[in-house]
Structure formats: structure tokens, C-alpha cells
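Homework help thread (please don't just give me the answer)

Our assignment gives two proteins as sequence + C-alpha cell strings and asks us to describe the second one. The first is just a warm-up. Here they are:
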Amino acid sequence: MEAYRIALLSNVDCVEIDVSRTSDGALVALHD
């Protein structure tokens, strides 16, 4: 999440976030 915070502080135009669900049901944000 630190990379997303830095990107937002850098005034980028957009941030892509992929969300997946783990086998135990937790949601995780990632970029692949």
C-alpha cells in the first residue's frame, strides 16, 4: 500500500488496483 500512497502524493492521473479473493475469503489489492 505504500506504493499507492506515494503515487497519490505524486499527483498521478490514475492508479490501477486489482482486487482478488484468497482461498480463505480475504480480499487483497495487487498489481500484476
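The one we have to describe:
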Amino acid sequence: NKQSFVDDQFPPSSRSLGAGSFNQCSQWLRISEVTPLSHDDRKLPWTIFSSPKPSDIQQGALGNCWLIAALALISEQPRLLE
């Protein structure tokens, strides 16, 4: 069975984003669906951490400033990322 896992407590829907309504439409992607923009970039290894900076992080519509603050702090501590 090659069916992808879906968490019952966190389904890919606006319900998982919180009680407020969001005017912007989001597209839910699995990590396997996220690919480099150009064909040349496909030769590079995919990585999450590549010299992250606090300015790389932006708060969106979720109201998750507590998470953004934590990510900004961690980005300044390379040993925590490792």
C-alpha cells in the first residue's frame, strides 16, 4: 500500500491552521513535492540549513510570533542547529 500518511489531528486543511479564518488560499505540499526551481539546482543537495539568519524568517497570517522568535534565536546559534 503506497498511500501517504495523513495525521487525523493535523489534516492538510485550514482547520489545522487555527480557529481564525484565512483569506489567503494555501496549497498543502508534501516534502517530495517541493523541488528546486531550476533544473541546474537539482544537482545540489537539498538542505534546510544553509547559513540561516534571523532576517530569513517572516511571520505570516498564523499569528505565530512565539515560533518566529524561537526560530530567529536558534538561527543565531549554529551549534543548536547541528
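TA reply:
I won't write it for you, but here's a hint about the kind of observation we're looking for: The CA atoms of residues 12 and 28 lie 6 Å apart.
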